Amino acid sequence: MISSKTTQIKPFYILCIISLFVPITFITTYTITEVRGDDDQIIPYISDTIDFAPESCIGTFGLSIIAFLMIIVVFIKHLIIKNNIIEKEYSYDKKEIKELRLNRFSTSMGFVSGLSMHGVSSFQFHNANLVHVIFAALFFLCGFIYLLTQTILDIKNSNIITQFFIDNLAAIFEIISALSIFAYMVTFFYEFSNLTLNIEFSGSIKKINGNGGYHNIESN
Questions:
Q1: Exposed (0-12), middle (13-18) or buried (19+): which is 37, by Cβ within 10 Å?
Q2: CA proximity to 70, closest of 143, 124, 135
């Protein structure tokens, strides 16, 4: 007879590990970058602090663990929202199906954001700058979409009625994340102020001439 054994894991501890790993990883990489003088900026970009060894080794190790745990958190949150939607018992099925689809879409954005974080840490800027930038863009874009859609789903389906403050706190973080993206674009002002775009529209139209042939009419 084969006996089965169930192991219980508290997801709360996963969040605790992430909360510890994120500051420890970034504080370590930023400190080493500053001590070694690998970057001359007063406040380096995150990519600059994980670009060269040994910072890149520490950054890849820490961020890979964070990305893996982040994907697990996204999946657990998916199951919680799904359960809340099903238990809510909508008066008509179409609304329930719509909510479940939004939950799946939100989860997929969370997965892409988590995988992109792993890509950012694995492909350092000086080794593969294009791949690094693509993963960074996907991380921020998909991460923002995930936060936005999760906030919407939480407002509609959260069973935590007594913790109104927590719901509002989540909304505040979502707003801060959105504003940070637009605030980052402010840094483009200097480059844009020194840039002039020359746009030229040109084309050709074929017209039948008197001999039955064609000649081009250039337009500028």
A1: exposed
A2: 143
Q: Are 157 and 99 in contact (CB under 8 A)?
A: yes
Task: Give per-residue pLDDT as tens, 139-177.
Answer: 888 888 898 888 888 877 765 544 555 556 666 666 666
Q: In Å, how far are 184, 186, 200 from 193, measured between CA atoms?
A: 16, 11, 21
Q: What is the pTM of this model?
A: 0.69
DSSP summary character for residue 208: E
Peptide linkage before 44 cis (omega within 30 of 0): no
Distance between CA atoms of residues 110 and 106, nearest Å: 6
Residue type for position 29: T
Compute the radius of gyration of the chain from its Cα atoms: 25
Task: Name every residue whose Cβ is closer than 8 Å to that of residue 2 and which is 6 or more positions away in sequence.
Answer: none
Element (H, E) at 201: none
> For the packed helices 129-157 and 164-185, what is the interaxial angle rounded to 10 degrees?
150
